[in-house]
Design a protein that fits this description.
mainly alpha; two-stranded antiparallel sheet; two-stranded antiparallel ribbon; 4 strands; about 35% helix; about 5% strand; binds 2-acetamido-2-deoxy-beta-D-glucopyranose; signal; Lysozyme-like_dom_sf; Glycoside hydrolase family 23 protein
Length: about 280
């Protein structure tokens, strides 16, 4: 892949992680006039050791895990202290534990939008399973990114800091939205919710989904997920290989790792966004 803004952004969701209060808008700005490569909308995880097309088993991890926050820095490998896939929670427990947050997510966003009803919550659950089965992206990783991007509110505002990011996963210029141009759709239709999750996971015609980001990482171990989180958020990896470094949200990959091991309500101890020096953040 050639080294240019276009290739740097090839995997870019340039997605904004909530809460927005911890992110400075200058750090999130995408370069203007960037021409983003066109890509397939049906990306799947190509590494057989990483791909998981059977997400039918929802009791597939360490139950509830532990609701605590541990700050992870460095390259995303278990050697650098990041959690192994064996230490991840079960999807069933993870969804159950986030359900209350998902239920109240919309009113807790900046714009106090109408909350989810039961059908919308069910559509999120089914949408994750459908996208996971179709792309080989582990369902727990998709849920972690949804919680990171929108807290599970399908009416989350479409953001635009150079790239339009709509929907539950604030994906790369996707079609599905229930809050575009200040037009709110309540309830958000099941098909729209499913499409939002598919666009975030399998990609859109103008940008990568989680599957592409995992492929791009290409390390064949659990660090592919944490590296993919970094790529989804900022469009590329830091030259240092440290996942707290680069643009966008420095806590993003660490947050995702914590969500995958049971973090729900515990106070975050990540200082990488409030005090980048404390995490040895490099902008390159
Ligand atoms: C995997 O991701 C890479 C990097 O974005 C992409 O070029 C490739 O098309 C993807 N493969 C599939 C099958 O999705
Ligand atoms: C993954 O994508 C490739 C390329 O598009 C395709 O050949 C393959 O059948 C897909 N695998 C699955 C399991 O869908
Ligand atoms: C996902 O695939 C598994 C088997 O591979 C199947 O049991 C399950 O019903 C599928 N789920 C959805 C939502 O398609
Ligand atoms: C997970 O937490 C729920 C609610 O606290 C509890 O009922 C359940 O037994 C726990 N499951 C495991 C596997 O620890
Ligand atoms: C990742 O970081 C750990 C700890 O700093 C180091 O031991 C390991 O060699 C690094 N792995 C890669 C692939 O860079
Ligand atoms: C967010 O969405 C609401 C509802 O559509 C709208 O009133 C508000 O202006 C939006 N905020 C921004 C920053 O676009
Ligand atoms: C900080 O990161 C740089 C790479 O950007 C590395 O060379 C250096 O060892 C790190 N320092 C500490 C204290 O981790």
């Amino acid at each position: 892949m050639k080294f240019s803004f276009a290739s740097l952004l090839a995997c870019a969701g340039l997605a904004t992680a909530l809460p927005s209060s911890v992110i400075s808008s200058t750090e999130l700005s995408a370069p203007e006039g960037v021409n983003i490569e066109s890509r397939s909308t049906n990306g799947n995880v190509t590494d057989k050791g990483i791909a998981r097309f059977d997400n039918g088993n929802i009791w597939d991890g360490q139950g509830n895990g532990t609701d605590s926050y541990k700050l992870y820095l460095g390259n995303g490998t278990t050697a650098a202290g990041w959690p192994s896939i064996e230490s991840w929670v079960s999807f069933g427990n993870m969804f159950e534990n986030y359900k209350l947050t998902i239920q109240w997510a919309c009113q807790n966003l900046n714009w106090r939008l109408p909350n989810n009803n039961d059908d919308e919550i069910e559509a999120i659950y089914n949408g994750i399973q459908l996208a996971a089965n179709a792309t080989g992206v582990d369902h727990r990783f998709i849920l972690a990114v949804i919680m990171q991007e929108s807290h599970g509110c399908p009416r989350v505002n479409t953001t635009n800091l150079g790239v339009r990011n709509p929907g539950l996963m604030q994906n790369h210029n996707g079609d599905a939205s229930c809050n575009d141009n200040k037009k709110l759709t309540t309830p958000c239709p099941t098909s729209t919710i499913h499409k939002m999750i598919m666009e975030g996971t399998a990609g859109t015609s103008s940008g990568a989904g989680l599957s592409h980001c995992i492929n791009e990482s290409g390390r064949s171990d659990v660090s592919d997920y944490y590296r993919a989180a970094r790529i989804y958020n900022s469009g590329s990896l830091s030259k240092t290989g440290d996942l707290q470094s680069n643009i966008a949200t420095h806590c993003y990959a660490s947050d995702i790792a914590n969500r995958l091991t049971g973090w729900v309500y515990a106070k975050s101890t990540c200082t990488c966004d409030t005090d980048p020096k404390s995490c040895n953040v490099s902008k390159n």
